[in-house]
Amino acid sequence: MDNFKIETAQNITIQQNVAPLSTRIGAFLIDMLIIGSYYMLIILILNALGFMPTENIYVFYAIVSLPVFFYSLIFETLMNGQSPGKYLNKIRVTKIDGSKPTFGSFLIRWILRTIDISLASGSIALLTILLNGKGQRLGDLAAGTTVISERKTISIDNTLEVDIPEEYIPTFPQVTLLSDNDVQTIKELFIKAKQNGNHKTIAKLNEKVIEITGIKSDLKPIELIDLVIKDYNYFTQQM
Fold first, then answer.
1. Which pLDDT does position 157 carry in this prediction?
2. Burial of 133 (0-12, 13-18, 19+ CB in 10 A)
3. 23 lies in which domain range?
4. In terms of domains, do 96 and 177 share one?
5. Which segments within 100-165 are labelled E, that is strand?
């Protein structure tokens, strides 16, 4: 899975896990299956009612096709960057800086979808995504968005343990007042908050840690929490 890092104005590094191309294709096929099922349902209902439009047939089919025409725009707007296919495959449209896309962003992606997917049978989108490296088709490039994977990957970030240099010197012995569950929760929230640039969560974590441990420090919240996690690992590894 490709990934890339960006740094916000607050010097927070965010790592974006680009959705694999195969996953995006899978999501697209699921959406097409849903659209096909919708058309079949309409036909079955009309046949059951014995209704077949004879006059203004083009107007009728245009009206029936409206939900399909606006399918991706409607779902991505209402489902915060996901269509049903994206939801099932755990991928989501997001801004390239990690923030939530606006309706304008979804609209631009939807307009350029005609060029990316419809007119060229997806070949332009495929080529652009492969060459771009950030999971962006033309619509994403214009809208400043990308498609990321929300699947959890197993790494050291998913465990309590962190890498500590052999010469590491702890700063806060008070961290031993915390439990393994406390530090695991702190670490998970801290990593997620850094990735999303969520400073409020980091500040709340900082307040809670100070409340439990009684640590007094002039360090910034992000620096303090990082040290607390490392110090706790240092002391537990000595036991």
1. 43
2. exposed
3. 3-149
4. no
5. 145-149
